[in-house]
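Q: What would this chain look like folded?
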Amino acid sequence: MSIVFLIIIGIAAGFLATRIMGIESDIITTMAIGIAGALIGGLVLRALLAMLGMVAGLVGAVFGALALIWLWQTYIKR
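A: My prediction, written as structure tokens:
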């Protein structure tokens, strides 16, 4: 379903991109540019979000470990 959504959005994006860049092309070329751009952009964005998600998990794990060490030193080890 997400690929179909990217294709539909890509058609609109191709139209907008060709108008913004001032390129005169036929409908098929405009649609192809938009679909390819949407697929590439969508995949790159997903990869970036996945990497950021892993980094966020690492940061969260470090903060969790720091909190546990602080609790252990403050309340258990006296």
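Residues 19 and 59 are 42 Å apart (CA to CA).
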